[in-house]
Design goal:
This protein is an all-alpha fold and about 60 residues long. It is built from 1 helix and no strands.
């Protein structure tokens, strides 16, 4: 077991030497949320739909 430690240490040093550090990359910021004009969709009417208790149950998988 102790004879394997130097080989493990050398392998770790070799793998560590292969890693690269990323220099500061310039990333573009995410685009802002859409704040443009709201376009009305013709033929759409808003309607109230009450909450159905039978569809608002907790999720369970495999009976747990």
């Amino acid at each position: 077991m102790r004879k394997e430690w130097p080989a493990v240490a050398i392998a770790l040093l070799v793998l560590t030497a292969c890693t690269t550090t990323l220099e500061s990359q310039t990333t573009t910021p995410p685009p802002p949320a859409y704040n443009g004009p709201v376009v009305e969709i013709p033929g759409v009417e808003l309607k109230y739909e009450p909450i159905n208790p039978s569809t608002s149950q907790d999720y369970s998988a495999n009976g747990s």
